[in-house]
Amino acid sequence: MFDLFLPEGEPRGLFVFVHGGYWVALDKSWWSHLAAGPVARGWAVAMPSYDLCPDVSIEEITAQVGTAITAAAAEVGGPIVLSGHSAGGHLVTSMMCVDSPLPAGVRQRLRHVLSISGLHDLRPLLRTARNEQLRMTPESAAANSPALKEPLAGVALTTWVGGGERHEFLRQSALLSNIWHGLGCLTEDVVEPDRHHFNVIDGLMDTHGAMLSTVLDAVEAKSTGK
User: Fold this and answer.
1) Is 171 strand, coil or helix?
2) Residues near 209 by Cβ (< 8 Å), separated by ≥ 6?
3) Which end of the chain is flanked by fewer CB atoms within 10 Å, N or C?
4) Three state DSSP letters for 179-198
5) Residue 223 pLDDT
């Protein structure tokens, strides 16, 4: 399931936001306000929900998000930009791995991925109480970690994190940008001062703020030939 917010006129493309909640909480209904910025810039915005752990595995959630993005892409043409927060950051970076669940036609439209306070190496979670709900094994944690995979060619990555967040979120953001830069991906790791884990996503509502400009300006310029 996904909500689809449409701008006036023909959309510039499809912008997707995938929510967080450590794969165990929340749904799309909490985040509709975040569509404001991309919609004001002329983008259609899709916000999917997904089943939660422990009822399903993280691997199954990843497949569900891929199915939702594919369905939304069938409704809206043009380039695709993906964004996600926390666990959602993991899910959208999983979409730009070489084993992405997205079909070839959708992969070819994918231009930029924004992981906001994302989790990209799941192995440290094995040592936390959270894994009682996630039910990961060392093997499944490694198999579902984007930082241990290769990125799709031609897709840019921005990792974005608040300067006031816990060290692990700062480390996880820098980690993926660093590793994938070495694998030929165009990456940027942004640490936004005076932001914490729960207000760092507010940048999505700022139509021409730094966050949206970073991920949309180049895509819009290329699509218009500027």
Assistant:
1) helix
2) 37, 203
3) C
4) HHHHCCCCEEEEEECCCCCC
5) 78
Q: How far apart are CA 95 and CA 135, in angstroms?
A: 22
Q: What are 93-123's pLDDT values in tens digits? A: 999 999 999 999 999 999 999 999 999 999 9
Q: Can you name the residues that pair with 113 across neighbouring β-strands? A: 82, 157
Chain centre to alpha carbon of residue 187: 14
Q: What is the model's pTM?
A: 0.97
Characterise 149 by phi-psi region: left (phi > 0), alpha (psi -120 to 50), beta (else).
beta
Q: Which residues contact 131 (CB under 8 A, 6 or more apart)?
A: 125
User: Of 173, 171, 172, 175, which Cα lies nearest the Cα of 160?
Assistant: 173
pLDDT value of position 60:
98
Helical ranges in the chain per DSSP H: 36-40, 58-75, 87-95, 104-109, 131-134, 138-143, 167-182, 210-224
The single-letter code of the amino acid at 78 is G
Query: Going by DSSP bridges, is the β-strand pair 44-48/2-5 parallel, antiparallel, or unpaired?
Result: antiparallel
The domains of the chain are located at 2-224
Cβ-contact 145, 123 below 8 angstroms: yes
- The residue type found at 220 is E
Question: What would the 3-class secondary structure string for 17-62 be?
Answer: EECCCCCCCCCHHHCHHHHHHHHHCCCEEEEECCCCCCCCCHHHHH
Q: What CATH number does the domain located at 2-224 have?
A: 3.40.50.1820
